[in-house]
# Entry
Amino acid sequence: MTRSSQIITLLFLTIFLCTSNAQQNPQFTQYLQNPFVVNPGMTGVEEYLDFTLAYRNQWTGFEGAPRTATLSINVPTHLLRGRMQRRGGETHTGIGAFLYTDDTGPIKKTGFYASYAYHLKVSREWFLSMGTFVGAEQFRFDSSEAILLDNPNDILVQDFSGLDVDASLGVYLYSEFFFAGIAANRIFDQKLPYDSNGGILVTGKSNRNFNFLLGSRIALNNDWEVVPSTLVKAVQNAPIQWDLNTKLVYQDKFWGGLSYRNQDAIAGIAGLLLGNGFLVSYSYDYAISDFSGLQSGTHEIILGYRYNFGGQKCACPTNSL
# Structure
């Protein structure tokens, strides 16, 4: 391996392992439609089984840009026992799981997590939930998709992979008109080593990161409500990232909204709840950073199914987004 090729390889991996700290969890504009993957405390928060498939194609037109997908399911455990809550709710638990994949050029990440949450009724209208994700994540480097400028066929640039146990903790406070949550992810602070077999050893860290969610459901009249929210994300050695969102909902069946991510993008969101609990939602991110001229935006689609236990009129969120 030549000196210049070593430098390029080292630079690529160092840039990735450092910048990946800023986005180590799956990022979605529409966490409004898939909040379970944001905070494990939201496991089983609603009175239905929630099944969601989400796909994000980031920076369309840019080779090697991130592509992320998640598949999740969560439900209150009392519904699985065939028992509905009494009016006003009660202390209960929830279980769930989600699988995600995230590809960014030669970097491949796959994770699977199971979740559990305990929802404590603290007053007539308020619940405090505490939850956890526990699972494993595989990190892989595919050398066949790496671009080396000095020596594209350098055999010393090797594939590598690692499997690590991972966990998250979350707390979520909610009522029918207000919600707030904080979550700590990747609490084991795993290391990511890479040895090129050419004397170079790069070690990065999958740093702990945190997010804080705050929002409200405001009824405008019998048909319309507005849901403003913000999500703040922080990770060591990276700038704080925050989203501001507003969603307008009509009869719990149609919604549209706008989102702003600081120094990154503006997004538009639209979706609808179909018959029998199926939903579809789409968003488009328009980049406002210096990177905007190199790509043509980000597309994101969410498909969901809400299984309505007990024949309720509508499997609609009342304690989340």
Summary: The first strand starts at residue 49 and ends at 57. The chain has one domain: 3-311. Residues 3-311 form a domain with the Porin fold (CATH 2.40.160.40).
